[in-house]
Amino acid sequence: MNASIITVNPTFKHCHIKPMASSTTLFLTIFSKHGYKISYFLNLFIGLIRKIINLIEKKIKDMKQSIGAKTLAFPTPTWVVGTYDMNGKPNAMTVAWAGICCSNPPCVTVSLRKATYSYAGIMENKAFTVNIPSEDYVKEADYFGIASGRDENKFEAACLTPIRSELVPAPYVGEFPVVLECKLLHSLEVGLHTMFVGEIVDIKAEESVLDESGNPDIEKIRPIIYSPGSRSYYGIGCDLGKAFSVGKEC
Amino acid sequence: MNASIITVNPTFKHCHIKPMASSTTLFLTIFSKHGYKISYFLNLFIGLIRKIINLIEKKIKDMKQSIGAKTLAFPTPTWVVGTYDMNGKPNAMTVAWAGICCSNPPCVTVSLRKATYSYAGIMENKAFTVNIPSEDYVKEADYFGIASGRDENKFEAACLTPIRSELVPAPYVGEFPVVLECKLLHSLEVGLHTMFVGEIVDIKAEESVLDESGNPDIEKIRPIIYSPGSRSYYGIGCDLGKAFSVGKEC
Questions:
Q1: CA-to-CA distance for A159 and B63, rounded, in angstroms?
Q2: pTM, whole model, 2 decimals?
């Protein structure tokens, strides 16, 4: 084997060729009689395969375009964060920069700009709710992302009911099928947004969206997906299979 | 107005009754002749309305069941985190505890348990990629969440191509339509999971999934949604409308 080929092309440190190199050794031991010739042709063959792999990798790479450093990841959620302001007025704000971040304790993150009215509400009460709207409430969810609680009572304007959580000082949206009651665990200044980590102390869900085992069923909830870039909302599509299962066929 | 009614029921601090109270005053001024009688009937009427609102709120509240402190939020993404191990072997792991967390700098979070092989890869290289599979790769994505890079080369097993990012020391999945190249900005120990905040230094996307303005189009990407609880994968459904727009009709 020509060692210089390996060193000049670090890509191959992890490629399919390595096991073939040990096969080469085995091959040479068995057919030691014509060792020199076999080694020559094998090296030629390996070199060719490497070139083909290189070309394929380059082709795959070339198919991708750089589109810059943007917040374009798919899917993102459409969640409504419920808070009280310093006067106890209920407020709600829609976020898409959010997600689950820990299984134990169960935690979610929601990221808000400091300028928002809800930011002050979370800082004031060290608590918030995450309200998951169904498709039926897409207009209300969008409204919560447009208006500011500084100027109006958004619950009244959207004709939705703020229910005071009994576990955390934050209101939840009575009409939404699933709500998470969260107490503030961490806050991290990332940049334009502050990321709040909330520990989920309880989840309240409408009976109508529960499955047989008592867990919320995504097909009954019909949550809203937010698509950054096009700034559009989408529903849930087809069932693609069970996790920790379909991959076994891989 | 009976002031005691207001104080014993703080719920009404923000309800629709307030404007009615000022209307009552106006009404009483105009019809001062029969002020006492009108005031009596109006208070009776307001009390009745309050009772009805109370009953409606209680009904809404009662419709919800407590299902405990769980990580049940919808939707969550299906993203594959790409890393190199300490020997430079490419590795990939599927995560659903993830999301965008900041617009500027553009950042994402991915949460991993310390026990995972990818955890060590991120700590080693202070970088990772977020790879967004299309529906076509649901089996491969699931496989990346089942197997461990400690035991095998998952890229080889899944017949997918690890491409070395030119911007961060991490590989991305050549076949997936959109990939985010991230350098580690923060790590936060939340509990069972460690949350990594990665700054998106670039996004690579296949030409075939770009829209007219050059941004990735969710309908062309066809990303995978993960549903906790049922542990199922779903596709993207119907377009529900434009964000910062449909809410104006609210």
A1: 18
A2: 0.80
**Residue (of A176, A116, A67) closest to B217 by Cα position:** A67
Pairwise CB contact (< 8 Å): B100 & A224? no
pLDDT mean for each 10 residues of chain B (250 residues): 36 40 59 69 83 73 88 98 97 98 98 97 98 98 96 95 97 98 98 98 97 95 97 98 91
Using a CB-CB cut-off of 8 Å, the residues of chain A touching B141 are: 247
**HEC states along chain B?**
CCHHHHHHCHHHHHCCHHHHHHHHHHHHHHCHHHHHHHHHHHHHHHHHHHHHHHHHHHHHHHCEEEEECCCCCCCEECEEEEEECCCCCEEEEEECCEEEEECCCCEEEEEEECCCHHHHHHHHHCEEEEEECEHHHHHHHHHHHHCCCCCCCHHHHCCCCEEECCCCCCEEECCCCEEEEEEEEEEEECCCEEEEEEEEEEEEEEHHHECCCCCECHHHHCECEEECCCCEEEEEEEEEEECCCHHHHC
Q: Which residues of B touch A217 (CB under 8 A)?
A: 229-230
CB A189 within 8 A of CB B107: no
Q: Is domain B76-238 annotated with CATH 2.30.42.10?
A: no
Alpha-carbon gap, residue A158 to B246, rounded angstroms: 13
ipTM of the modeled complex: 0.80
**Closest Cβ opposite residue B14 in set A90, A174, A215:** A90
